[in-house]
Amino acid sequence: MSRATHALIHLDALRHNLDCVRQRAARARVMAVVKADGYGHGLERVAHALAGADAFGVAALEDAQRLRDAGFAQRIVLLSGFDESDDLPLLRRLGADTVVHHPSQLAMLAQAGPGPRIRCWLKLDSGMHRLGLPLRDAAAAYARLRELPAVDPEIVLMTHFARSDEFDEGATAEQIAAFAQACAGLPAPRSLANSAAVLGWPDAHADWVRPGGALYGISVVAGRSGSDFGLRPAMSLGTRLIAVNGFAAGEAIGYGGSFVCPRPMRIGVAAIGYGDGYPRHVASGTPVLVDGASAAIIGRVSMDLMCIDITDLPKADVGSAVLLWGPGLPVERIAAAAGTIGYELTCSITRRVRFIESVSIDDHAEHRVAAR
Ligand SMILES: *Cc1c(COP(=O)(O)O)cnc(C)c1O
């Protein structure tokens, strides 16, 4: 029998979350960010569920190629832009949009030969200080792009936030104001908002929003999970117990003997570990659900297995379902225990985990096994 470890992808949740974004940013068009294999959920699968989006955002030209190969005709935006002039023929063939964030890209576009016009998103640095042209160059760079024969004259002006997940922090309001001032008078659509800004900064919605995490039901807002905003988790990471054993007080469990039973305990062994992408460094006590009831990981997570305290769950036994994250156990909670954010956890699921698609979140009969 194949290993029980699986990632169930809730297609309905993806669609629901897109609807939520549309309700919150009703006047904006939506670029669904599907980089990093759809935040680990599977690029093509996610794109099919989110086919109602107005555009897709990817990080790599290969992802744009995959989306076109799968038949998607939507706008696809290369969020980090192209790296070299050799990328331009493929960009044109794919009909993908590119972000332009650096003078070197302007120079390459100026040298581009004849061919279809390329749609550009001019990225300005309003305070994050990662990618983007300085705000003072906004008008000049816009004018320069407009006059290049290789560039489509409809250019979107964009910027990215550093701290939009901190709703009571002034930095985002400052970025919004600085961007507005730098772009004043330029007759172009604007795009500022990532997920956290869709949720918490309505002034930033503008013409295009660019949610990623929110579409997968994940919040990056400290102390709040996606469900606090009406979002539904798009991934359930699950497995089963493959052994249940009893131990006396004083016996040590697992590698390093780091957990010593304080009382007689029943320990369930679940078929999942860091080889599947579950973080190894979570502390004893990190929650899981066993047949829907709360339980806790004890000892060290190993490569293929982890130990779970089921002393107080007398009905739990070999074969019991174990949920590592998903509905009822937000991935944000596990991320907090692992000192990271939910995005990193869903992106880290490894290839040996079986992906299953669930059409309806309520109807577990409709699962179908999907190739990765
Ligand atoms: C990844 C990314 C997003 C999406 O961010 P989320 O926090 O997942 O919503 C938006 N814009 C840009 C430029 C990005 O790189």
Keywords:
372 residues; alpha/beta; nine-stranded parallel β-sheet; six-stranded antiparallel β-barrel; 20 strands; binds pyridoxal-5'-phosphate
Tell me what the structure shows.
- It is built from eleven helices and 20 strands.
- The chain is α/β, with parallel strands linked by helices and 372 residues long.
- The mean pLDDT is 95.
- Pyridoxal-5'-phosphate binds next to helix 9.
- Derived from helix and strand composition plus strand pairing, the structural class reads alpha/beta
Percent of residues in helices = 25-40%
What binds here, in terms of ligands, is: pyridoxal-5'-phosphate
Q: Ranges with pLDDT <50 over ≥5 residues?
A: none
The largest β sheet comes out as:
9 strands, parallel
